[in-house]
Amino acid sequence: MFNKRLYLLVLTFAIALGLLIWNWNSTPGVFLKTSSFLASVDRWEMDLGGQWKIYPSLRQAWITETEQEGKGIDSPITGGEYGYLPSSKEFQVALKTFKIPAEWNARSIMLQINGVYGHCDLYLNGMESAHRIGSIVGEGGSERIQIPVTALNHGQDNLLLLELSAPSAQKATFLGSGYPDKGRITGRIALQAVMETSLENPRTQVTWEDAMARVQVDFQLSHHGFSEYGPWTVQGIISDGSAEIAQAVTQVHSDESPVQNVSLAFQIPDGHLWSPEDPYLYQVYLTVSNSRGDRDDIAFALGLTSLAYQDGLFLLNGKELPIKGLALSPEKEAELRNQGDIEAWLKECKEQGYNLIYFLGQQPDEYWLLEADRAGIGLWIELPGSAMVPAQRLPEPRAWGEWAKTASLHPSVWAYTSGIGLEYNSQPLVKAYEQEVSSVTAPIPTFNLNLTDEESRVGSWGEIQQPQETQGSRGGLWPAEKWVSVIWAVLLVIVAWSNLAAVNWRYKELQNKKPKRALRMAWFWQGLAMITRQMTLAGILTALLFNTEVPWAQWVPNQWPLWEGIRMQSPWLIWVILGSLFSLLRLLQVGVVAPHLPGAPDTIGLAAWLERRYFWNWTVGVLWALQAWGIPRSVPFLVYMGFNFLFLPLKVRDVHRIGGGYAAFLWVPGIILLIGAVVAAFRWEDIFYAVHMVQQSNWLRLILFDG
């Protein structure tokens, strides 16, 4: 009779797991609008943003699009689907078909790709290494990649494939891993046709002599394989929108280098300062040309400011700048970009008295930088990968060098957060990291800030407020938990009472091949008690997973995507899967011991006999139900573990009295702990990090007693 119950339990687990896999919900993602801070009239451009085809692997993408001619797009075997880039959605492989216009044949083709979170390999017209045209590694990184002429199919369709894997920050963070091994692209993707020499990577530096602004513009001349066509005349103009304010000209001779650094110096008498009250912007125009008539140009906005941080205060243009900031979550940021509401939202924030927007866990797109410059509002940016990272795995600050140079063009960038929850017990590593970050981001100040701590988000410099959507986690994902816990507590009381009222039986009854009805009912209620105990533990853990508020919730989607992915699934399926899994593990633990006990009893029968010492389970269920009336969320779990240790001596005595040894019950838990220890050995930094964080913060108290 016991075998049928085992089969039913295995079948329940298999069905629930199959339903979870079949109905797995991924982050829906939204299409993100984006733009560039550089403009040009001499470059030809093709925007590759919009609809792409998404695949789970590079091979499936290539075979489906070439050998099967797209017939497998809707097939579950190939797994292809339509999606949009740039997007907040994570993916593994994206494919786009494009055709080069005939007039582009005489120009060099550049691929501009921004906002890459992860490791991105780019392939053109093939999936072998010979067809890889470049790689990008970063947390919001950008890259301009020259496409070899031989790699393009002129006059025919070209297939561009982007293969992404998890960003390094996802793996380096506390308890992070490479799974799911996906990345995302949140920025602009475009092709540009440029002449043999193009202007790249402009940077600005502003110094003041009384009212005169001295502006130095540094940039590069990039020669795309034809550097012998010099010399080049480089001209720069700064305009106020109606007239020329300053001009500079220089001539550059060939030095057989593919990249030449160039600087132009400008003087602006009575420079008009950029400020939140008066966000005045100049326009900078740069052109390069040679005697053959080749020409390239770029234009961008310039705001003249003087920003400093002294004695705990921000100083803008020599005046104290009290900060009143508003935190912006990644979800809200994606919503605003998707709807194109950035300009209106920034104006609304200013009307409410805010003068700064704090970006949580990611770098803002150029779209945000442009609109913030125009609106006259500051930006405080968390450098990605800096949250909850053990000191031994802190990111390499040089990776943010290009971003910091780009941000120098925007007067709205006021501050960076270089670390969140850093291990100050590991002072040498942290101090060296902070110094290197400061050198990369200078003159913009950097801070170690934790918005979950009231003392961190309020300082002498001002305060940063968290709106409703960024406070706590997105709790309440299992709204039925309240009434479910009450019903479950009632069921546990019924099961406990039924076991108390059932006929009393002993270990030797397990050898009874023809038990009477009363004994069969006792076995039924005892077996049900074992199942409901495992389901109680599973229910408590499911509630912790779906409905617990954690202080670092705003960083969870970026740092722990698997956690966030599970929270998007059905809590009912998670509960059933965990409950049946715990029940099967319990039966495995008992099954290892059963053959070595007197009479070699049936596994489920032995588990039912051992359940007599778990009569207390109904109290755990009642505590779970009482959470709606103020019982801390962690109490039921702690009580469950406490009762296990409290009754352990009685369980050991029961096994010894029937002539068995309790040590055999430790085999399965021991193997599980050994596997955990092996995994922990490869992540030993996380253990020390957790110890340091518990010593230095109140996070554990928040989770255990205020959750």
TrEMBL record:
The keyword Transmembrane applies. One of its GO terms (molecular function) is hydrolase activity, hydrolyzing O-glycosyl compounds. Keywords: Glycosidase, Hydrolase, Membrane, Transmembrane, Transmembrane helix. InterPro entries: Beta-gal/glucu_dom_sf, Galactose-bd-like_sf, GH, GH2_Domain-Containing, Ig-like_fold, Ig-like_GH2. The chain crosses the membrane at residues 7-24, 483-502, 523-546, 572-594, 614-631, 637-652, 664-684. GO terms for biological process: carbohydrate metabolic process. Coiled coil: none annotated. Residues 198-291 form the Glycoside hydrolase family 2 immunoglobulin-like beta-sandwich domain. It comes from the Bacteria. The keyword Membrane applies. Belongs to the glycosyl hydrolase 2 family. PANTHER family: BETA-GALACTOSIDASE. This is Glycosyl hydrolases family 2, sugar binding domain. It comes from Desulfitobacterium chlororespirans DSM 11544. The lineage of its organism: Bacteria, Bacillati, Bacillota, Clostridia, Eubacteriales.
